[in-house]
Each structure stands twice: as structure tokens, then as C-alpha cells.
Write a structure and sequence with these properties.
With 264 residues, this protein is α/β, with parallel strands linked by helices. Helices cover 41% and strands 13% of the residues. α1 runs parallel beside α2 and α4 runs parallel beside α5. The chain has a 7-stranded parallel sheet, sandwiched between helices.
């Protein structure tokens, strides 16, 4: 069975994606900072038949990152690394004139430095993955003849060894929104690291994805005056991520709303 590591998997998008992969027969290594919610999430994933290793901890801790990769190795390898864990840097968000510098450092550490550290730890297993050993055509992301509308330079690649890295980004990485400067800067750093990784590791699929607006605890902490009831649930974004996976899509930056709309 294929194996995925998902950070920030106790709630929100991480938990929703984990449930979808478990339903498809994947084995999972999941993490979160809070042990209780992670234990509850892991219980649900196991009910779907997945082997699940749940490791509470902070992705900013190098020892914890090593434990995550070691757990994947114990399950047989690593095919998909999902860097989903994030912090805001200030709760609620504030203008740059009031941005705590320690908060910005924390956002950079968790949102950019830690994902790179986990990639570094996981690279030998990801390079050895045979997840994309066969060509897969996709009705959603090009077909090898027509170019993709997304950032990836091509819509489909032929057989190649290697697994995938999925980095959860934000539109705040590319757009200037008041009060989102610290968080957006950290996600912009993640985008650039992802782009360079894609160039340096052509055998891997590297996707950095803006999931769009979602009704999550992170957003509620960022903007507590917005009740978020009009925002979509994280579960509605998961099909976009699965389309990337099913297509073996080319490395690049993608926006979940475009994938969900089936843009060509």
C-alpha cells in the first residue's frame, strides 16, 4: 500500500485529506501538536482500514521530523509528503506595524523551515518511491497534448520513479492583503522553496497548492470577527488535491478552485 505523511492532520484540511487517502487504501503517518485531537483523528482513519501511526509533536522540532520519516519507513516507505501544518504568527492577525517579530519567526519556522527540514529528511524515501511508475492521463489536468492552465510546465509526464511533495500554500503568498503580511511572507517562502525543489528534484512531483477560502479553526483565529459560515468546509477542497495525485500532475503551483472547476 502507498504511504503518506500528513502534518497538521488532527483537524481541517489535513484530517479531511487523511480520511480520503485512508478510504483509498493508503497507510498514514499523521501528526499534530495536540495529542488528544490527533488520537481521535487517527481512530477514525483506522476505521477506514488504514494502518496509521499518530505522532504528536511540533514540526519545528528536528527530532520529531525524524520520527515521522522513521515511522513511514516502518510502514514500507514514503510516497506522498503533505506539509499542511501552519501557524499564523499573530492571533488575530495584525497590521505589519504591530506584527510581533517573534511571531513572524515562528511562522517562518513552521510554515517554511520545517517543511524543508521534513523534505530533507524524507528525500531518500521519496526518491525510491514508485508511486508514478505508470503513465496516467487526466481529464482535469491536461492530457499530454494540451497544455495545463496552471503553473506546471506540462500537464502530464510519462513513467518515472519518485513520489510527491504537497505543500499547502495560500493566496496570501501571492496577493497583498492587509493584516496577512507575516503569514503571507511565510507562505511565499514556502512557495519559492517548492519551486526550487521542483527544479532540483525532477524525479519528484512537487505541488504547492492554494486551497482557497476554507472554514477552519486557523481562519477563525486569524479573523475572529468573521464567523466563516459562508466559507466552504475543508472536505470540499480534497477532490482538487486528489486530482493532482490521480493525474500524476506536473510540478507547479495550483489553485484548488481552478482544479475543482476542471479548468483546461
Amino acid at each position: 500500500m502507498p504511504v503518506a505523511v500528513i502534518t497538521g492532520a488532527s483537524k481541517g484540511l489535513g484530517r479531511a485529506l487523511g480520511a480520503a487517502l485512508a478510504g483509498r487504501g493508503w497507510d498514514l503517518v499523521v501528526d499534530a501538536r495536540s495529542a488528544g485531537p490527533l488520537k481521535e483523528a487517527a481512530r477514525g482513519l483506522r476505521r477506514a482500514g488504514a494502518r496509521v501511526v499518530a505522532l504528536p509533536g511540533d514540526v519545528a522540532d528536528a527530532g520529531h521530523r525524524a520520527e515521522l520519516v522513521a515511522a513511514a519507513r516502518g510502514l514500507g516507505g514514503l510516497d506522498l509528503l503533505v506539509n499542511n501544518a501552519s501557524v499564523l504568527g499573530a492571533e488575530p492577525l495584525v497590521r505589519l506595524e504591530a506584527q510581533p517579530l517573534d511571531g513572524l519567526r515562528a511562522a517562518l519556522e513552521v510554515n517554511a523551515v520545517a517543511p524543508l527540514g521534513l523534505v530533507q529528511e524524507a528525500l531518500p524515501l521519496l526518491r525510491a518511491s514508485e508511486l508514478f511508475g505508470e503513465p496516467v492521463a487526466s481529464p482535469y489536468i491536461g492530457d499530454g497534448k494540451h497544455p495545463s492552465p496552471h503553473t506546471g510546465t506540462e500537464a502530464h509526464k510519462g513513467p518515472a520513479p519518485g513520489g510527491a511533495v504537497l505543500n499547502i500554500s495560500s493566496d496570501a503568498a501571492a496577493e497583498a492583503y492587509a493584516t496577512w503580511g507575516g503569514y503571507g511572507a511565510a507562505k511565499a517562502a514556502l512557495d519559492q522553496l517548492s519551486a526550487v525543489l521542483a527544479v532540483e528534484e525532477p524525479g519528484l512531483r512537487v505541488w504547492w497548492v492554494d486551497p482557497g477560502d476554507m472554514r477552519t479553526e486557523l481562519y477563525a483565529a486569524a479573523v475572529p470577527d468573521d464567523d466563516g459560515t459562508g466559507r466552504p468546509l475543508p472536505e470540499t477542497v480534497v477532490p482538487a488535491l486528489l486530482r493532482l495525485l490521480d493525474a500524476g500532475a506536473a510540478s507547479g503551483r495550483y489553485a484548488a478552485p481552478g482544479l475543482l472547476d476542471g479548468d483546461r
